[in-house]
Amino acid sequence: MAPLAPFVPPHEVIGEGPHRVVAIHGWFSDRSAYTALLPHLDRRAFSYVLPDLRGYGRARGVPGEYTTSEAGRDLLALADHLGWERFSVLGHSMGGAVAQRLLAAAPHRVRRLVGVSPVPASGVAMAGEQWELFASAADRPDNRRAIIDLTTGNRHPDAWLDLMVRHSVEHIDPVAFRAWLDSWAREDFHDQIEGLPLPVRVVVGGHDPALSARVMRETWLRWYPAAELVELPAAGHYAADETPLELAHVVEDFLTPDAG
Which domains are assigned to the chain? Predict the structure, then answer.
């Protein structure tokens, strides 16, 4: 079956600055994943575009393969639609894998790359009960809650966990949610990005046992010669929600040297 034609995702643009940034959400949320971060961003220096990937938010019901490679093509179509020839990319979790697909497809267009608790280009090895926990999460909200609780260090209030789960159920198509898992967890394309010389910053939360600093040293930091690692001690997997001020600083501090 031939790939579907690229699709310009529903999106919003925040800011009017000259440094353009594509901000990609993760598996558990649509573009509102960055809501808590937005008030702290420098809108004079940067313009951020926040898209909904296929199956998420305003793109629920949009048919697709629901793969990171398809999303990379969609985001290039979005950049073309906006007239953005050069831009930086910010990706959270699954969005980190999507960001690297975009980079692999058009390395000459990406200025800088920031991954926040990002999935490596080699995927994430899971088997047995762990795989079943993730694979069943599309139909079982309790599994979604368990995953969010685990990856934030089992330390957040029930009300916050319930809010995160409710939002994911209400804003993500379950068929797409399940299909996305096979792509971001099981596909290995690191040979397509290994050695690319662009500046890369990887941000992890100190309370995230899944996509930890150790995992990043074994993957991202090995593959990108200009990569650096920042750990946020008070965050888990969802730094944009847990520590938005700190995340805004480490993102824009890294992007600022190339702001012109």
Answer: 11-258 (3.40.50.1820)
